[in-house]
Amino acid sequence: NIWGNDEDDEISSESGYLAGDYKNDSFQDDDDEFTIEVVSSPTTPFSKDFAVGGSKCSVTTMDRIVEIWTDSTLPDTSIAIENSDSAEERIKSILAWYKRVDRNPGTRDEASGLAQLCTKILIALGNANKQSDIDLIDVRADATEILEKIVSLSSKFAKSQDSSFLSTEALNAYMRCLNQSDPSASAKIADDFLRGMSSNDLYKGVVLPSPDLNTYNTVMSLWSVVGGDESQVGVNNVYQRLEVASLGEGNVTHLRPNSQTFKILLGTNSRKDNRFCIENAKEWMEKIKTLLEELGDKEMLSDVDIYNAAVSRQDNKIISNDNEYSPYWLSLGKSFDGGFKNITDDGSEKGMEEWLLDMETKQVYPTIETYEAVIQAWIETGTWDGLLRAEDWAKRSVLSATVGLQSSVIPRLKTIKPIIAAWALCGDERAPKRVKDWIDQLTMLSETTLPHLRPGL
After folding, report:
1. Which of 230, 232, 310, 425 could be bridged to 270 by S-S, CB 3.0 to 4.6 A?
2. By C-alpha distance, which of 425, 336, 434 is closest to 385?
3. Residue 235: alpha-carbon gap to chain centroid
């Protein structure tokens, strides 16, 4: 049994710790397989007349190509942006399309068609920017240029608020393009837009459209990555305004909070000093349960993604775009750079373990994302015990997936990378063998039950 004695290796729900001989349990990992699904530009000819917003607009074939191409970049498509170049190249491609269609239309129909194309391009840019997990790419200036193009078209050709070309969808996309390297400033800008949209203020002479739930969630999401008390104050303030708006006059069902809303709420408020706090998590989970019961949505109470939000990182840009580490994912183990630390943990890692085990008792079964959050938390301690605990949880995910047949916890190379990075950087004499053992174990698993774990070194 490559993973040791099954009975000894179980993590008890009572103790939360795994018994066994750590010295003989050596495993190792390797690179993730980086994949990019390239969306080719359509080359078939299209009619120059097509319906946009209920009217026929005369556009060029290039406009139609751009419309279809930008449609292919919306969130529902599977575009994997894994390495440090793909997001940047995708953003460059999107901006190149904008430059090719940017012009000064002569009629309202042409302006309407161009505005909708610009909106689609802005959405594609926002999605690409959100997916850039490795590089912090500043696209705000480009997004502002596209937004102002829509505003100028609306100001010149639209006669009233009802016929404005500036949509809520466009503004939501613009918010996703705000500078990720300065989250506090970005959150404040987005919040200002939300306030203006809520009262239909003028923006450069054009009436701002009313916000939808996605607007509130986007602004809350921006506040969530700020960190500290400022993050919690910002998120909770926006949520309070959403509650007020959802109780307003008229049809406000579109402002009913959804799972994304509650994930942001729980994820942000489960922190204390930017660390996971089990007491805060439990307190806010009870608050969310009360809110869901009031909304009559009991099914969401068993949504594993909401539970995962409590332990997931809000600052998902954990990999720096500097060149200090190569390959870049070695930065996941930077707490071990220079050797093991002799520090006492603050209990947040054990709290995460308790949260995961508590999920199981409630029959809300953890996913591999839950395991990865716990693994990374132990890795960030920079301690010998922390590294061993991370290995324990990685081992448990493999056993659960292969022996327990739990498909939701099938490990990925991403799961193991923090452990490999820690061994690679710690400088301990046992590290080379530990790394080799992980590679050997992953190779064997990839040849039997888990082919996606094939090391790519």
Report:
1. 310
2. 336
3. 17
Contacts with 357 (C-beta within 8 Å, 6 or more apart), sequence order: 11, 13, 16
The torsion angle over the Cα atoms of residues 211, 212, 215 and 216, rounded to 10 degrees, is 100
Task: Kindly report the pTM of this predicted structure.
Answer: 0.78
59-81 per-position pLDDT tens digit: 455 455 555 544 544 433 333 33
SS3 414: helix
Closest of 362, 422, 361, 418 to residue 394, by C-alpha:
418
CA distance 148 to 142: 10
Most confident region among 38-52, 85-99, 100-114, 187-201 by mean pLDDT: 187-201
Check pLDDT > 80 for residue 451: yes
* Comparison of pLDDT for 159 and 10, the residue scoring more: 159
Percentage with pLDDT > 90 across the chain:
57
- 272: phi then psi, degrees, rounded to nearest 5: -140, 120
Q: Which two tokens stand for residue 116?
A: 């909708």
Instruction: Give me the mean pLDDT over the 363-373 stretch.
Output: 94
Number of Cβ within 10 Å of residue 414's Cβ equals: 16
Sequence-separated contacts (24+) of 4-7 with Cβ below 8 Å: 4/395, 6/399, 6/403
The Cα 187–Cα 143 span in angstroms is 16
Angle at 305 between CA 356 and CA 301, to 5 degrees: 85
d(CA 404, CA 396): 10
Cα 45 versus chain centre, distance: 37
**What is the DSSP-derived secondary structure letter of residue 51?**
E
Q: Which residue is associated with the tokens 């959804």?
A: 258
CA distances from 243 to 235, 257, 259, 291 (A): 12, 8, 15, 10
Q: Which of 87, 91, 215 is nearest to 141 (CA)?
A: 91
Tell me the one-letter amino acid at 88.
E
The C-alpha atoms of residue 408 and residue 388 are separated, in whole angstroms, by: 23
Structure confidence by residue, pLDDT tens digits, 190-210: 999 999 999 999 999 999 999
CA proximity to 243, closest of 305, 287, 283: 287
Task: Identify whether the C-beta of residue 76 lies closer than 8 Å to the C-beta of residue 125.
Answer: no
